[in-house]
């Protein structure tokens, strides 16, 4: 038989449990505050973009912002166009998924890359493999230039779409003509988002059975 724990042991276990709970709560609180700050920064970036005169100024500005703010910026852009998004619980260790968006009947994984030059073909290929593993569609969003190899991978893919250049700016401009080529039946502008949007999102949740992560 196991000996009955002493009062000292019970107190020690209780203190350990309380300490563990405090650590977990503190980390979660810090993470939540960090996410909130990044989201607030992303909203300020959206407003800042409106004041810049042209495409060169806007894309150069995006190349300089914090990478985590860029991730939040994309999600803010999708939400501004009437789509529902799913945020990660953390910025690192996300397995190459920087967020998710529900478009029509489909769940799209998002990968955000801030490039100054041409995007890496390897990154595009790895994202395509990731989409196959998850059996869903995806949007590779970046601030750089898309080379011939990356374009070929995107064109040949039935799952992936690259968003860059003016299309990226349109995504980050509420009320613009931003569209998703792989989901033509669900083209929406924020000004046209109505109760029908909520119905589409609800149906998407049933058909895809996605899980927040």
From TrEMBL:
Record-level Gene Ontology MF annotations: DNA binding; restriction endodeoxyribonuclease activity
Keyword Ion transport applies: no
InterPro entries membership: Restrct_endonuc-II-like, Restrct_endonuc_IV_Mrr, tRNA_endonuc-like_dom_sf, Type_IV_Methyl-Rstrct_Enzyme
Residues of the Restriction endonuclease type IV Mrr domain: 62-172
Keyword Signal: no
SUPFAM superfamilies: Restriction endonuclease-like (SSF52980)
Gene3D superfamilies xref list: 3.40.1350.10
Alphabetized Pfam families for the sequence: Mrr_cat
Gene Ontology biological process: DNA restriction-modification system
Chain segments annotated as transmembrane: 6-26
Keyword entries, A-Z: Endonuclease, Hydrolase, Membrane, Nuclease, Transmembrane, Transmembrane helix
PANTHER family associated with the record: MRR RESTRICTION SYSTEM PROTEIN, TYPE IV METHYL-DIRECTED RESTRICTION ENZYME ECOKMRR
The protein's name: Restriction endonuclease
